[in-house]
Automatic annotation (TrEMBL):
Domain EAL: 1-45
SUPFAM superfamilies documented for this protein: EAL domain-like (SSF141868)
Highest taxon, organism lineage: Bacteria
Lineage: Bacteria, Pseudomonadati, Pseudomonadota, Alphaproteobacteria, Hyphomicrobiales
InterPro entries in the record: EAL_dom, EAL_sf
Protein name per UniProt: EAL domain-containing protein (Putative c-di-GMP-specific phosphodiesterase class I)
Amino acid sequence: MIAEGVETEVQRCFLVSERIDQLQGYLNGQPLPIEHWAAAVGLPDVTGVPARAAWV
């Protein structure tokens, strides 16, 4: 099971005590601008490349 919206250590501790082992929310990381997406998922940076050329 995944718990969403986990923002505090108190929330994390409670969820772990309830055997929830997958968490997401501000406690783990804050949202990043879309420009950081490619690097986050291991793709080459295509900033400045026309959209058609990026998928070729």
